[in-house]
Amino acid sequence: MIPLDSLDLTNVSFMKVDVDGCDDIFLDGAKNTILRNRPVIIMEILGGADIDTATPEQKQMILHTKKKIADLGYSLYRVSVHDYLCLPNY
């Protein structure tokens, strides 16, 4: 695996992210691409864990990932059990 940032992508307008629990690792490796391009993102966060019924550890992981996305300047909207629409704040 390589970080997405290593590809130096430009003109990225949309990302669909499903990385099977490696959400924070992905975000760390895509931070510059996201900040540079401000794409709309659909992201599965900790797939298989519903924040409403998650264990305390799972809930902490979900909230941590949501905060990382928000810290990149995004608003998150839950669109299904564990899928979120992430829109850049302008």
CATH architecture: 2-Layer Sandwich
The portion of residues assigned to helices is: 25-40%
Number of strands: 4
Q: How many helices?
A: 2
The coarse overall form would be globular
Please outline the major beta sheet.
4 strands, mixed
> In percent, how much strand structure appears in the residues?
15-25%
Oligomer kind: single chain
Structural class: alpha+beta
CATH topology: Translation Initiation Factor IF3
CATH class identity:
Alpha Beta
Rg, alpha carbons: 13 Å
Please list the strands of the largest sheet in the order they lie side by side: 1-2-4-3
What distance lies between the first and last C-alpha atoms, to the nearest angstrom? Answer: 32 Å
Low-confidence stretches: none
What attributes does this structure have?
90 residues, Translation Initiation Factor IF3, 4-stranded mixed sheet
Structure description:
It is a single chain. With 90 residues, this protein is of the alpha+beta class. The chain has a single domain, classed as Translation Initiation Factor IF3 (2-Layer Sandwich). Helix content is 34%, strand content 22%. The protein has a four-stranded mixed β-sheet, covered by helices on one side. Helix 1 links the parallel strand 1 and strand 2. The chain is globular. The model has no long low-confidence stretch (mean pLDDT 95).
